[in-house]
Amino acid sequence: MISKNKKKILLVGGCGFIGHNLALKLKFLGNEVYVFDGLAVNNLISFNGKNIKNKKLYTTILQERINLLNENDIQLHVEDARNYHALSKTIEDISPDIIIHLAAISHANESNKNPHNTFDHSLRTLENSLDNCRDKKIHLIYISSSMVYGNFKSKEALESDRCCPLGIYGNLKLAGELIVKSYHQVFDMPYTIIRPSALYGERCVSRRVGQIFIENALYSAPITVSGDPSEKLDFTYIEDLIYGISLCCEKEQAKNETFNITYGNSRSLEELINVLKKEFSNIEVEYKNRDKFTPIRGTLNIDKAKKLLGYKPEYPIEIGYKNYINWYKEFYKKL
Prior knowledge:
Elements lengths: L7 E5 L4 H12 L3 E5 L18 H17 L3 E3 L6 H11 L3 E4 L6 H6 L1 H20 L4 E5 L12 E2 L9 H21 L3 E5 L3 E2 L8 H10 L4 E4 L5 E2 L2 E2 H13 L6 E4 L6 E2 H9 L7 E4 L10 E2 L2 H7 L7 H17 L2
Parallel strand pairs: 1-2, 1-4, 2-3, 4-5, 5-7, 6-15, 7-12, 8-11, 9-14
Antiparallel strand pairs: 10-13
């Protein structure tokens, strides 16, 4: 549905996997969309080095993100979000109604290997966004993670559950949530916090599990499962997530709330592999021990998003993951 109330929306870190897909969706809905991204974190600049696995594939995908933004007349400001003055000037020039903060190190393993870099790109950038939102009362939407919950204590994780994250990544995401809420408390700045889970979809280069499985199938390499293949994750297709975020831009009820935005029904790694097997024959699966900083997860309860936002996810893995596999096959042929 085309937006009735056109808004100016700035996506900080908006050329990433979530960001560029979200920018395209928000523009399609009739909003005025801008992207601010230094292209250095898990993006074109960081893939310039040597000995990067699947380098040609990833750089081609990353270039397509930029091409799509250009084709849809979405302004891309190539600046580092750690640069306070550059971000401030852009915000002053655009005067956005909403800032969506996506800038971060997007992978838990990378965060644990390089905590200083993770802090720098995750919390320092967030501080810059918040400081520019506070006096202008700009609605800030913060993209957090289901990793803030740590090991799930029950069948479904609720937004009100106590968060006990494991490792650097989850703890920094929770720290970000607390900082966002503190700005609301002190400055009355409106916010929304969004917790996605187990994302997959077109033009991802973050080497999430769904992406790695497809790439290994394309290269006829074994698929490695860490831990128990019956373990369940709330796999969420990118289209469902960006639909949920777009509702948060539209609905007043989204302000000053935290939402699980996922498919809302966890599925096992084994089930995900079974969808893959229908598209690729002779897949070899190997097993190894789970990483100690990978929490035991499951379903995220999405009742709150359904009630307050009217959120209705549409893509179980049988549809969403199949779409993603078919897109990857076609993209791979063009290389």
